Amino acid sequence: MPSILSLKNISKTYGRIKALKEVSFDVPEGSVFGILGPNGSGKTTLLGIVMNVLLANRGSYSWFGNPPSEKQRKDIGTLLETPNFYHYLSARHNLEISAAIKNKPFEDIERVLKIVRLYERKDSKFQTFSLGMKQRLAIAACLLGNPSVLVFDEPTNGLDPSGIAEIRQLIIELARDGKTIIMASHLLAEVEKVCTHVAILQQGVLIKSGEVGSALSQEEWLEVGSNEMEKLKGVLKQLPGLKNIINSENHFQVYFNQPLPDSAWLNQHCFEAGIVLNFIRSGKKSLESAFIELTHNVSN
Amino acid sequence: MRDFFHTLRIEWLKLKYYRTFWILLSVIVVCIPAFNYVIYDFTDNSFPKINGKSLLGNPFSFPNVWITVPYNAGILVFMPAILIITLFTNEYSFRTHRQNIIDGWSRSRFIFIKLFEVFILTLFVTGIVVLTCLYFGFLTRKGEPVKAGWEQLRFMVYFFVEMLDYSLIAVIFAMGIRRAGLAMGIFFLYMIVEQFVVSIGRNKYKFAWVDYLPEEVSDRLIPQPFTRKIFSPNDIVIWEKHVSLYFSVTVLYILVFIFLISQRFRKTDL
Q1: Least confident of A73-82, A180-189, B91-100, B196-205
Q2: Complex ipTM, two decimals?
Q3: Residue of chain B with shortest Cα separation from A50
Q4: Is the dihedral of CA A182, A183, A184, A190 positive or negative?
């Protein structure tokens, strides 16, 4: 899969503070690429560099396989940190400026305002908007000209729960349309729901990058219980690909070295061995636990 | 060229609906002739007249008016500076200087068009000064034939250069400080401090270099028009000897300021 964005050994320092250290990764075309990391890990700095508002001390990057240029940025919808608009202008006039810079037709403004549900407020001044409305206007600006690549830095900042759900749905729909979305976030639940790939940063260092499943291994297990626990343990020990069995209060947590066996099959298997299960459930480590485990291991 | 006009149009979109811009511009347009009228009224009525003529001569009639009006307008040069500081610091406080780059402008394009805006504003104010000169020139001719003294139009060039110099100093403060109120305060403070240094340096220590400080040297392009007839008629001869040097040094400052402003915007984090 060709790379939309390719980073090679990007380093950035602010005085003595090393914000980014030799960061390299590729963003595949059509992916929803999450840049994960706690506050201050260098996510926004990284996006600032690839959008040319910050200058890297070392390293290079390319968009669409070419050295960075102003023309490329016109075809990328970007929301970086906060919504940046002229406070004294209306939503429509602000988008006219964005559209004019991007060389996109003004006719598209109506469409994007409707997508983010700001059409009715198109003539209201930006300074009268709530934080959530400002954020939605910034997303509208990103969508001008229907770009194939979108860069979002904390896109759900300031939004209420329904606004967060709407933006999440919008991102999923944009991804379904084949767009590449690069998204920095510290909200793991947000990333878990929409991202296909991740890069994990901690204190400016890239810990891991790749597909969500491989970068953040989310271990799965089965929980089973019976009135005859000892007999059940004996049967479980015979299961193919068994990794570990952990005793819980009134059930076992069973880990495998391979994909989990089907629950119905296991139930049948135990029944044939003369054990009636009174409890069976599959479990999965949350992205949050996987992320904390990973970052904790690195910092130690 | 099409690209340039497209960029200029975007800059116009930023200003078209900005009420503060129009208010400040209107204040400038009104204040230059009004301030000159106040001085005209004062010089015409507050000094003794000999044979019906003012002791100060006729500073507001042709060709003297070409020096008098830009000299007075030079006192008000802080007004366009306020407007320029407002326009520049807006970009920083709204963080639109970053957004314009993110949306697809190069850093060079952004700073070029901003400096061009300063150039256009300076040209516009110079135009107001020219119209004010013509107004007072014709107002005071009192039936006499007009000797416009078009050769004195060079003072319009001097005024343009003086205002551009002040405006670029304002840009430097705006870019360095990024907050409108503070940048204006520091700009005014700098004006006062430079005048203080010039005053002390010239009168107490006889330092010649103080005449070539950034604002002072541009102020010297237009000599004080009112009292030289009474106190120092030779001053104009001395000024004429030095004016090309003042002009060259001011232009040099302008070029250095443009270079520094461009480099800062192009080579630092936004």
Answers
A1: A180-189
A2: 0.89
A3: B102
A4: negative
